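Supplementary Methods. Inverse-folding protocol.

Structures were first reduced to a discrete structure-token string of length 772. This string, shown here, constituted the complete conditioning input.
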């Protein structure tokens, strides 16, 4: 926690402004440097704050820089390939830059933690092949969070030729903190001074050329999401690589006599270990040793022959430093780094004086996170989102439905009658067609989610929900994987990586399946539109809410049993409100469509084929018997394979009100949730080809058992089925992801316990509902 708030800018001599309480009085929003940060009361109370009147400006924190005449510690042979790593704070525009530079479409979002793993993009310029790696955002390069460790690992293991440091120009002080670490690590660096549009609007002026000269790093203004300045950056990267760039210089930050002295004592001892020196810059290691960093200590304990000697010097120097500064070394160095940045900015940054007036964004924010209005607005927004998913989606849905119907009719006419005709019309078209009609609805849902993400409202939702999340043992940060879960469980499970604590990660991962993913939406839409004529938006909202409530209950139980622990801190940045860009939203929706269509083209088609075959065979070839059975009605026609399978599992699901066909859907839904709908499309087909699937399931009657003659579906059965679909085990892809991220054990737990809960909930709903 100490580390996290240090890197966020809570260091000696900085103003802290209290902005507001969350609606439930906790957490609180603070302004430090130029960013807004949310802290819980319990955490904020650990930070020492003194009245501004009692503060004496501290001197001697800016010592400027030292030129380094050492040869660079690692020299790469010049090749025609340049490996560039993108490093920067969360939410400063790295991925936007990456997408523009490489022409790829990685996900961008206005909150931290969107990119969780490295993404590589390759492009050519001026005869060079440039490998650009998009890394997760970090405030500093240390060992505390998985992202930080990941970035650090990447920089050290992969040894990129160059680091492209994306810096948020409107929040320079904090962003440059990371830059000072890159300087310590001695990387060749180019800075993209991003968000330059916002910076210029603020009226502040920065002499970035001079700042660059001071740091020995070229600074280039960019507006990444519009693609402005990106070519300049890439050209500069090439210049630096070719050693043609005149600003680039090998400098160090001067930490003042005491620390510089300590470094100069440790460095020579490290230099005796060649293997270490080949990989790491010794100055960097010396600083990390003084900071008592565990990873570095471990590394040197194993990697050096003279570790004992080194360690002794480090201990003695640490004592000298703490004696002088009356603070632990890590804090001292962070203070000095911030002191250096402040000194450098004093000479280059001119603040305009209009930055204190409340602007439009502040006014909007005051409403959105208002004590009384915050929650109602969030709920209304979600309600509108679901209502729109339904009502706006209905029109294009109808067109696609008609199209699918026409296609089916046309194909059944042009293809010669027989097995193949049946296969195409009843298998492929009915199966895939049943799923494809929901494409518009899914797009609308993603339009809203994308809107929430891009504007920054998502982070505010986290802010107002943290108290509740905390109550159930989750972390405000769990909100992001959970919200991602409404899109798809696979990236959601991966997004759990951003949680720093392993127990938090597993707990969050276990409840992700209850966040209704978009693949389940077709099932709900089909059944809700068939059996509920009024308040469809509300019913849809209720399904999502039940998922959330169950997740909360499960989290509460687990938190008090298996995952007992002290809670983790909640330091979260609240990004500024931004206009959602059309480009971003469109890309997001486009990606989703492609993904959805791909799924239809693969999993759904294969499953449809399989289901159709199993339901078509064994086929009676003898026409006469066929006619006879039809006439008499008493003799059963031989059961298809699928019917046999369905009837085999039906008894376990009968208490929930399901017939054998629904039981089959439960099975196929495991492949991908949409396949439940395509399965229905195949199994609930009637002879009347003009009937839509909705009409068919409305008319479906039991032909067997004690319920023979009754309707298979009632609103209650439909609801019970929806709940089962909502809650039972996630699809194969999600289970496999869980296995990859954790292990087989947790994948198995995930599969079994969700299914058990689904069964119990549907059982209760159906049985209790039947009493009325
Ligand atoms: P990352 O977390 O560093 O990968 O940042 P993203 O690329 O996901 O961008 C964060 C947010 O900032 C998104 O909402 C972008 O649309 C927005 N953004 C990116 N670059 C700029 C820029 O130059 N100016 C402005 N105003 N917004 C930007
Ligand atoms: Mg990113």
């Amino acid at each position: 926690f100490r580390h996290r708030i240090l890197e966020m800018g809570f260091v000696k001599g900085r103003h802290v402004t209290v902005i507001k309480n969350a609606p439930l009085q906790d957490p609180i929003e603070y302004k430090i440097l130029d960013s807004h940060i949310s802290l819980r009361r319990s955490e904020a109370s650990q930070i020492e704050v003194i009245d501004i009147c009692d503060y004496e400006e501290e001197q001697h924190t800016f010592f400027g820089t030292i030129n380094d005449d050492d040869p660079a510690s690692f020299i790469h042979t010049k090749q025609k390939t340049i490996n560039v790593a993108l490093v920067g704070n969360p939410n400063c525009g790295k991925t936007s830059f990456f997408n523009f530079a490489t022409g790829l479409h990685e996900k961008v979002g206005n909150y931290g933690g969107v990119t969780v793993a490295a993404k590589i993009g390759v492009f050519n310029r001026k005869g060079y092949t440039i490998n650009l790696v998009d890394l997760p955002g970090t405030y500093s390069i240390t060992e505390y969070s998985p992202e930080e460790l990941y970035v650090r690992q990447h920089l050290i293991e992969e040894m990129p030729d160059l680091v492209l440091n994306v810096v948020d120009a409107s929040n320079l002080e904090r962003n440059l903190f990371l830059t000072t670490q890159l300087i310590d690590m001695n990387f060749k660096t180019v800075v993209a001074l991003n968000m330059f549009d916002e910076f210029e609007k603020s009226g502040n002026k920065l002499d970035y050329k001079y700042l660059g000269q001071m740091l020995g790093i070229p600074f280039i203004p960019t507006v990444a999401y519009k693609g402005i300045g990106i070519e300049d950056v890439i050209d500069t990267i090439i210049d630096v690589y070719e050693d043609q760039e005149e600003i680039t210089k090998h400098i160090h930050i001067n930490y003042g006599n005491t620390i510089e002295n300590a470094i100069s004592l440790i460095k020579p001892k490290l230099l005796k270990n060649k293997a270490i020196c080949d990989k790491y810059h010794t100055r960097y290691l010396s600083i990390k040793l003084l900071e008592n960093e565990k990873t570095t200590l471990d590394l040197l304990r194993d990697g050096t022959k003279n570790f004992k000697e080194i360690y002794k010097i480090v201990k003695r120097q640490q004592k000298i430093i703490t004696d002088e500064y009356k603070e632990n070394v890590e804090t001292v160095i962070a203070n000095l780094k911030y002191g250096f940045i402040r000194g450098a900015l004093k000479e280059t940054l001119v603040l305009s004086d209009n930055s204190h007036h409340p602007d439009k964004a502040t006014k909007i924010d005051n409403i959105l996170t208002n004590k009384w209005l915050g929650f109602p607005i969030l709920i209304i927004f979600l309600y509108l989102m679901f209502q729109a998913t339904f009502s706006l989606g209905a029109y294009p849905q109808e067109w696609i439905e008609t199209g699918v119907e026409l296609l089916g009719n046309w194909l059944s006419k042009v293809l010669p009658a027989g097995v193949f005709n049946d296969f195409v019309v009843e298998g492929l078209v009915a199966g895939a067609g049943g799923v494809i009609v929901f494409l518009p609805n899914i797009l609308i849902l993603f339009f809203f989610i994308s809107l929430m993400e891009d504007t920054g409202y998502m982070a505010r939702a986290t802010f107002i929900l943290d108290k509740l999340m905390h109550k159930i043992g989750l972390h405000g940060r769990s909100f992001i994987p959970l919200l991602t879960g409404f899109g798809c469980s696979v990236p959601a499970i991966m997004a759990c990586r951003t949680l720093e604590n392993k127990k938090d990660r597993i707990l969050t991962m276990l409840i992700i399946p209850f966040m209704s993913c978009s693949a389940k939406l077709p099932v709900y839409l089909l059944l809700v539109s068939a059996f509920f004529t009024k308040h469809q938006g509300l019913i849809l909202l209720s399904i999502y809410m039940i998922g959330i409530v169950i997740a909360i209950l499960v989290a509460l139980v687990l938190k008090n049993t298996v995952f007992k622990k002290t809670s983790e801190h909640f330091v979260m940045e609240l990004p500024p409100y931004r206009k959602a860009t059309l480009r971003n939203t469109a890309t997001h929706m486009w990606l989703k469509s492609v993904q959805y269509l791909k799924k239809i083209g693969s999993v759904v088609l294969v499953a449809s084929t399989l289901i159709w075959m199993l339901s078509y065979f064994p086929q009676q070839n003898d026409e006469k018997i066929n006619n006879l059975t039809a006439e008499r009605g008493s003799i059963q026609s031989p059961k298809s394979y699928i019917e046999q399978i369905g009837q085999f599992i039906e008894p376990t699901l009968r208490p929930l009100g399901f017939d054998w066909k629904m039981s089959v859907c439960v099975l196929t839904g495991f492949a991908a949730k949409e396949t439940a709908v395509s399965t229905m499309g195949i199994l609930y087909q009637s002879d009347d080809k003009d009937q839509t699937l909705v009409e068919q399931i409305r008319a479906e009657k039991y032909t067997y058992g004690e319920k023979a003659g009754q309707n298979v579906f009632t609103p209650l059965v439909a609801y019970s089925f929806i709940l089962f679909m909502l809650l039972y085990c996630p699809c194969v892809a999600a289970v496999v992801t869980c296995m990859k991220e954790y292990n087989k054990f947790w994948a198995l737990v995930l599969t079994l316990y969700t299914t058990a809960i689904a069964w119990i909930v549907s059982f209760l709903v159906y049985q209790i509902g039947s009493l009325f």
